[in-house]
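Q&A log
Question type: sequence-to-structure
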Amino acid sequence: MNRTKVKIIIYILLTVISLVMIFPFVWMILTSLKTQPESLLIPPRIFPARPQLVNYLEVWRQIPLLRYFLNTIIMTVLTLAGVLATSTLAAFSFSFKNFKGRDLTFLALLGMMMIPQPVYLVPAYVILAKLRWLDTFYALIVPWTVNIFSIFLVRQHFKSVPWSLYEASKMDGANDLKFIWHILLPISKPVLVTISLFSIIGSWNSFLWPLIVTNSESMRPLQVGLAYFSQEQGSMWPLLMAASTMIILPLVIFYIFAQKQINQSFVSSGLKE
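Response status: OK
Response body:
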């Protein structure tokens, strides 16, 4: 079998896999445009007879979707800012600072990644209750502003930066913050995009933690609000699919605009000694 045939087979397989992965999203959008009877037809009808754009308006009428979006955006943006700040500063300390117990502390942090979330849900809830942070943005944001995996990724990238750059900056009179801002961050865009992507998706899709720490409807993010909407609507599939489409759309738009940086983030980058 020559290389051309192999490439053709690979492309066919990739196309089939792509179609299989895309189909649920296409079905979600098509269902959101159907009437309730159409969504329950057996055998199912793929395309709606008359697209019902009114389903999207009906979702806005039945639930405070704008409030859910606002809560999620606030949670996502502030959590991302915290993750970028803490990951950069912690990674700098673990890469360019020599202090007693540095490597042991880093290994301890990595070990904490193996602790599953359900283990610390109750202690975290008790702490937040004593701080009176339940049902506030503090509970939704502060516990997630430090991400060990992000610290690990940024630290691994910083370790590839020549030590001579740090020494040269110190000789020029730059302090640590100037070195981070003017030298490290400009050459670290790919890894910063990577951790930003993980943080945004994680915050946008967060469900279990917001479900536990929020009580009022005014503090619910999108995923929790959609879960309550699903319970209330039962089998109203067109409305559920319309709500799901609107929730996913911002992530799709984000990917379209950040596609170039996201692709670069998966390529190893940095200066070589």
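Response note: Residues 64-265 form a domain with the MetI-like fold fold (CATH 1.10.3720.10).
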